[in-house]
Amino acid sequence: MNRSEILSHLKQNPKVSVLIVGAGINGIGTFRDLALNGVDVLLIDRADFCSGASSASSHMAHGGIRYLENGEFRLVREAVAERNRLLQNAAHIVKPLPTTIPIFKTFSGIFNAPLKFFGKLDKPSERGSIIIKLGLMMYDAYTGKHRTVPKHKFLSRKVSLKNWNQLNADITNTAVYYDGLITNPNASPLT
Q: Which residue blocks in the chain are alpha helix, DSSP H?
């Protein structure tokens, strides 16, 4: 069917079981699931599919590391599972993304981290090597036995400055962990 045939059909048969307004990634995903289950569904958008926010992707399949600090372990588990599925099922467009954290203190955050975790502190605070190392160990554990990304690495100040010669020389070390990079957010993961 072309556009005019679809519009003509809708004018003659205007009732549908489900109307989805917004053809971004969530609208399209919902449409797909409903249509595959035989539901009479219509998807509309004021522009083309994925032309709004979905076209401005960060290109990242985020594993949810930021949720660790607030103790939102279920969210971390879900985000890592989705990231891993994308890396496994759409390897042609999703690749491991190394992310480097410059660290300037060793012990910073040791007392603040538990307060933040238990909701007693809401302002951000600097995290030192020990807290970041513990967080990355937990993050790696969520990836599971079947690794889709490499484990994190902690690098000394000397190695860090050698690898990134423009890095602030005041660092104590760096940490490298992995999320997912969506190399072509406009490509279908099913192609």
A: 3-12, 25-36, 73-89, 112-117, 129-143, 157-163
For the full predicted model, state whether its pTM sits above 0.85. no
Q: Rounded distance, CA 46 to CA 41, Å?
A: 17
For residues 80 and 73, is the Cβ–Cβ distance under 8 A? no
* Residues 79 and 125 reside in one and the same domain: yes
If we measure between CA atoms, which residue out of 32, 79, 68, 65 comes closest to residue 188?
Answer: 32
Task: Find the domain containing 74 and state its range.
Answer: 60-182
Same domain for 92 and 145:
yes
Would you write out the chain's pLDDT as a tens digit for each of its 191 residues?
687 888 888 888 888 899 999 888 788 889 999 999 999 999 988 887 777 766 667 778 888 898 888 889 999 999 999 999 999 998 998 999 999 999 999 998 888 777 777 778 777 778 899 999 999 999 999 988 888 999 999 999 999 999 999 999 999 999 999 999 988 766 655 54
Cβ-contact 41, 62 below 8 angstroms = no
Kindly state whether residue 191 falls inside one of the protein's structural domains. no
